[in-house]
Amino acid sequence: MAKSTTGVKTDTIARLQAIVGDDCATDKKILADYAAPGRVPVCVVRPADTAEVREIIKLANETGINVVAASSTGPRFRGDTVPAEEGVIVDLSAMRKIVRVDRRNKVAIIEPGVTFGELQAAAARQGLKVLMPLLPRAGKSVLASYLEREPILAGKFHWDMTDPLLCTELVFGTGDMFRTGSASGPGSLEEQWSRGMAQKNPTGPASADFVRIVQGAQGTMGIVTWASVKLELEPKLRRLYFTQSDNLKKLVDFSYRVNRAKLADELLILNGPALGAILGDERESVRTLAGKQAPYTCVYCLAGYDHLPEMRVDYEEKDVADIAQACGLTIGRQIPGASARHMMGLLDAPSAEPYWKQRPAGAFREIFFLTTMDRTPSFIGLMDDLVKRHGFAPENLGIYIQPIQQGRSCHLEFNLFYDPSDAAEAEKVEQLFLEASAELAEAGAFFSRPYGAWSKIAYARCPETVEALRKLKEILDPKGVLNRGKLCFGEG
């Protein structure tokens, strides 16, 4: 049988075309959007529904092709949707239905191609708001973000690591379709709705919790074709505040106290370079604004809802002011380059172009992991030492701290901004990235989303987990057709 120049049989590509029709692309310009150096997919297929996804995976089981799911538009920074070896991209961005928005139960059912902007518009019509990560790309899939456990700004509403993701419909590597949580039945979605069900309980069927298996798995266990996600009520009144300090420990203490009392809806901490990247729109303005900020800024938002919103925000404002005074901090509604209203508008929307992490220098490398708030100063001190050791400019190091799970733990992120046209600087950043990742892990950083080189760091520490995951992989994807070579599922 004839083969294409890539090694995949031309008959296989023809059969993929038979499944998705004209939505099968082999054009080099299109493939380049999904590629990394030395790794270009064979083709890109865009299924229209779950049935076509199942047929693609069944074909993969028959032919042995490597299937990599993607749902966000490019550029792609982390490599989880770039084939580790020759593969076919299953682009789910054409599946963009918002199936349902349920105000009573504060839940929406969405397909993978739905972006944050699209879901925000639909939710707003029902008086609901979307739980946002920090300035997602305009083309970022909501479902992809939640599956990858990107932290949301509203830690107050983050009860469990799976939040805001609830129930899912997914196709395992065997080609079998499966529904999780209360969506598993009995009956169709429409029949469940007629009985008052809302697909809000993620656990099930029975005591199983397959969402935890597919979440964070980078598409190696199954492909999610729709999911229900949590929404919250749209506040009637919101006020945003800043508190700045050169002493991070004061802001950590402040964050703990505010989160413990559940006073702020959104709360995050940024250093000067990260804040400048968010406020500026091009390199010069980013550097100017970053240079005017305090070393660290805590941004938080108080909200009032349907009942006595002004009274609620007024008393919360006084409570937070008391906490700030006890921590030796002052509160304001203005910082250099941004009013409270302006900052709120930025945090409520996807990132404008260029993407905020690209604004300081054109490119970036990011290192992020989970820890606890009290340990962030020591990790930042370690990173500062590494930056000095490698001769990297401190003003190009962005820091973002996001309390999660109501402040019990946090997402700590370092962004290394650099000029991609400077080969020497790019090489310096790569070496810093690799060395910092290893030393931070040795110091206790938990890489819960192990992209690329982090997979060896994360899984080398827990061989029992690797053994358990490989057993699950053998059950759910016995022929290894889903995103082959990622996580701990490489050769050996």
Automatic annotation (TrEMBL):
One of its GO terms (molecular function) is FAD binding. Its cofactor is FAD. Residues 37-234 form the FAD-binding PCMH-type domain. It comes from the Bacteria. Keywords: FAD, Flavoprotein, Oxidoreductase. Pfam families: FAD-oxidase_C, FAD_binding_4. This is FAD-binding PCMH-type domain-containing protein. It comes from Candidatus Solincola sediminis.
